[in-house]
Write a structure and sequence with these properties.
This protein is of the alpha+beta class. The chain has two domains: 55-153; 168-254. Helix content is 21%, strand content 42%. The strands form three sheets. The chain has a nine-stranded antiparallel beta sheet, with helices on one face. The protein has a five-stranded antiparallel beta sheet with strand order 13-12-11-10-18. The chain has a four-stranded antiparallel beta sheet with strand order 14-15-16-17, with no helix packed on it. It is elongated and about 55 Å long. It starts with a helix and ends with a strand.
């Protein structure tokens, strides 16, 4: 009798453990998504607090030239201020977070949401996705490349185009000209590629038989539109048609 009771007890415990484990697997994507939303919310809150502190200072060349774009990286704030009669494209203002040192340069060119400024042989480029500083010479040399963590317009709207609301960003990868997101709710199911200047975006369903791995960095994601094939892995982004490469770029960072 005791033996039967013991077996029954262990059977009940096993079922409860199995049920708990099933719940864990079911809710883990939701927990991951909620954690990501909380992290993003905290980041935006900290960003807004920093902006309030900065707006107490005069950032743009004139009090009449208000910022129309604001970008934040790990080390810098970049403001694109409105233009005037002298510089119709506006002004590029870069502030170093640690010291508060500031440079102000007229914007020399604009393509979509990409802004360019030149100063004594140095080119500053900022987009909603990255800040790049290049020393201009016979062979351009990279001085700085930083991921943009926040990018907003004057009305407070985000300038970035990432995963849809309610989706988890399983991968965010950057190449020289593109930002690629692998999105989904519980599992990766969508490929989104955005040009860094924000002028073009493509959204496609992932092939269900993509090369998945427990580690995202070991996975290979494939999407197809007509005869065009989009492939992303940790090393490269390749877009091809009929076996010919249309785009082949090295992945610069992978998150």
């Amino acid at each position: 009798m005791k033996f039967l009771q013991s077996r029954l007890y262990h059977k009940v415990i096993f079922k409860l453990a199995f049920a708990s484990l099933s719940c864990l697997f079911f809710f883990s994507p939701l927990v991951k998504a909620q954690a990501q939303i909380k992290k993003e919310s905290t980041s935006v809150s900290n960003f807004n607090h920093s902006l309030i502190q900065l707006t107490k200072q005069q950032v743009c060349p004139s009090t009449q030239l208000l910022p129309k774009r604001i970008f934040e990286t790990a080390k810098y704030y970049v403001y694109i201020c409105r233009g005037d009669e002298k510089n119709s494209l506006g002004y590029y203002v870069q502030i170093y977070k640690n010291s508060g040192s500031k440079i102000t340069i007229p914007v020399s060119n604009k393509v979509g949401e990409a802004y360019f400024a030149k100063n004594t042989g140095v080119i500053y480029t900022v987009t909603p996705y990255e800040l790049v500083v290049t020393k201009f010479s016979k062979r351009n040399s990279l001085v700085l490349r930083e991921k943009v963590n926040n990018a907003i317009a004057a009305d407070g709207q985000s300038l970035t185009k990432g995963c849809p609301e309610g989706n988890t960003s399983f991968v965010e990868a950057a190449t020289k000209n593109y930002i690629v997101y692998i999105c989904g709710r519980e599992t990766p199911d969508t490929y989104i590629a955005v040009t860094k200047n924000g002028t073009s975006i493509i959204t496609l369903p992932l092939l269900s038989n993509y090369n998945s791995s427990a580690k995202a960095e070991d996975s290979e994601y494939i999407a197809i539109k007509g005869k065009t094939r989009y492939l992303l892995n940790r090393k490269m982004l390749r877009v091809s048609r009929d076996g010919h490469n249309l785009v082949k770029e090295k992945v610069l960072y992978w998150h």
